[in-house]
Amino acid sequence: VITQEKLRSILNIMFLLVFIVIINHYVCCGWYFLGSQPGEGPSWVDAFEVEQSKAYAYTTSLHWSLTQFTPASMEIHPTNTAERVYAVCTLLFAMVVFSSFVSSITASMTQIRHHQNDMEQSCRELRDFFTDKQVSSELYQRIWHHLRHSHWSSRRSVHEKDLKILGDLPENLKSKLRDELHSPVLIKAPFLLRISTNNVHGMSALCYQAVTETTVLPTEELFVDGKMAH
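RESULT FIELD:
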């Protein structure tokens, strides 16, 4: 099951890969431009005869650029002072970028693995519980289907009460925050719209004192027969 947290981590990894490719594109363009200009001594373009075609020259230059960012090597190397200076600057830049890239990839992969381990642990505990309690297969399948399609594939919205740091806000800021959060929803009712127009402070007090948030996933009951509504 691909949850939003896992999808976010995967997209983050893809973004980092695209970012590295874009950086290497500009580095390789600079490397090829430097090698194609007349200067002190032969250039790497002349020395290695890469101008067979534009595509071959670009891919060779890109290959060289990628080797500066990774622990790899190739036969292309600087052949004059300007190219050597460019290569040294690229290596210093690559040290910073590649270390940050690796740490970000590692963090994203760790997050994916941690989330996957939590899900697998929950599945094992659930199977053990159903087996020990001898739950019928029909009920087991219904519960499993609900968890797979609602609990594990959905993400509950984050509410104010879930963020403990917001509890430290002064009362006036809490009131303004709840007013902005809840007023747009409440004024959809004509009666409350009239109240908000005629009594702004009363509407703010209503949002601050009388409104709470909850999230109901698909197939979950919002109101249960015999239970008092809040």
